Amino acid sequence: MAKRAAPEVNAGSMADIAFLLLIFFLVTTTIETDSGINRKLPPTDEIVDPPIIKERNIFTVVVNKNNQFLVEEKPLEISEIREQAIAFLDNGGGVGDEACDYCQGAKDPSSSDNPEKAIISLKNNRETSYKVYIAVQNELVAAYNDLRDREFVRLNPLLGLTFVEANKRYADPRTTPEEKERLKPKLAEVKLMFPQKLSEAEPSKNN
Amino acid sequence: MAKFKKKKGGETPAISTASLPDIVFMLLFFFMVATVMRDNTLMVQNTLPAADQIQKLDKKDRVMYIYAGKPSSRYADKYGNQARIQLNDKFATVGDVGAFVLAERASKRQELQNVLTTALKVDGDTNMGLISDIKQELRQVNALKINYTTRVGDYTQNMKN
Prior knowledge:
The complex is a heterodimer of chains A (207) and B (161).
Chain A: H1 14-28, E1 35-40, E2 58-63, E3 69-71, E4 74-76, H2 81-89, E5 119-124, H3 130-155, H4 163-171, H5 177-193, E6 198-200
Parallel strand pairs in A: 2-5, 5-6
Antiparallel strand pairs in A: 2-3, 3-4
Helix pairs in contact in A: 2-3, 3-5, 4-5
Chain B: H1 20-34, E1 50-51, E2 55-56, E3 63-69, H2 73-79, E4 84-87, E5 90-92, H3 96-107, E6 117-122, H4 128-140, E7 145-152
Parallel strand pairs in B: 1-7, 3-6, 6-7
Antiparallel strand pairs in B: 3-4, 4-5
């Protein structure tokens, strides 16, 4: 028998097969990465001796079940919370050891001594809506970020980055280790100037 | 001299499609690599609230997800319309959260067990009571790093009903 050449495989349908797979992966793809507000919960250990905190160093935010706000015992719109929180954190009313040399606030003696002592207390009702709670959290974080941005730019004017941008760069896996090493102390310094002290009370049923 | 034949004008040659499979394969590989398959089917409504002071979540293998919200319309007649928690593919109660977290933690690699984040994907219309209960449960099992997963947007979107 004469040797017969093997017939060539027809590759014309290859494109169709590839298209089929392509469409499958197109449909199942979710490229987006999740993002959100990071928080740390307090440990459960019972604190035997709670530290005494002066009333003026606490900034209370209460959200009731109708999603209305009470800030420092005054009803307020959510758009004003950021401004009020910044004024409170940046007040720097302390004298002597507790003075704050980088604060630019009003130095009101009835408001916070310095940012290290200032605590924001957030209390919500069990019937508060989650999205309103997130909106408040967002505004309070924004207040801290605004202040940290200001100090970061003041301390590192040549870097051309704000605190938020620098923090994002630090968290980015593409950033080189050398740059991370360079950014780390700068970020830590600003974080120390305005530590995020956000305390959450357990929600109440009645207010 | 008459040898120089003029090319036959008129018809344009057909475009070669020989490279079409290559192009398609290129796209295919891109999407294959970029694809993350959804591992949970959502059984609850999940319209996340908007926020703009956000940070990116850690790598996928360091995160466990807790979903909560009203059961979606398919399950509404069976499970009612009160907000529920979803763990993996099942509805759960607040009491199950602790066990779920411990099981998830045990299933991760040793070096990751201490850096796990719990992502709370909660529908915007849920009441805070449920979320506080979840947070209490998380505190009990020492899963203290949490992330309120949100979508990117201005907070004023949350104030509309």
